[in-house]
Amino acid sequence: MGTTGEGKLTLIGQGSLANTHDLSLIARRWQAFYFDAQVKVKFNPFSYQQMAGLTNYYNDRHWSFVFITWNEINGSVIEVGENNRGKYTSYLKDDAIKIPEGTEYVWFRTKVRKQTYSYEYSFDGTHFTEIPVTLDAAILSDDYVLQSYGGFFTGAFVGLAAVDYSGYEVSADFYDFSYQELGDTLTSAGIYSWEASERR
Fold this sequence. Notes:
disordered C terminus; mainly beta; nine-stranded antiparallel beta sheet; seven-stranded antiparallel beta sheet
C-alpha cells in the first residue's frame, strides 16, 4: 500500500517481511556483485511494532532490514534485523542507535561486496556511519535457499519497506532511492536512480 507525489514514495505500514502477503515493500533486483544502494527516510514511530527502512530481500524466510523503530528507553532508534531460514535475529537490541531529537530524516545505505554486505546510516545525508554488523550475502542466494526451501524465487532484491504490526497503519516517506553498481573491481560501472514521482 502506498502513494507517490511531491518527489516521495509513501508506504503505509503493514505486515512483517516474514509474511507472504500484506507487505508494504517496493524493491529492485540485485544485478551486480558489488553495489551501493541508498535512501532518505522520514518516519515517526510510536511503537516497537512500527518499522521503516532499507531491506535486502530474497523471500519471506531470507532477508535483512535496517530500520527506524521505537523503544521505551530512547524513543526513535535504528535497528538491524535478519531472517535466516525463518529464524529472526535482532542485532543491536540494547545498543540500538538513538536518533537525536528533532531529526527529520535518516539516510540508510547498504554496501554489497559479493560475499558480504553491510548497512550505514546518516543524519545529514553526507556523513555516514557504518553499523558494525557484517551480513552473509550467500543467505540471499538461490543455492542457499534451495538447500532448505525446496525451490527458487527470483533472486535477491534491495528496496524499501514499512511495517506496522500495531494496526495503526503508520506511514513512512522515502526519497531519492539510488542504486549504484561498482563493477568487479569496485570501479563505477553504472548508476540507477529512482525518483518516486516518476514511478506508478
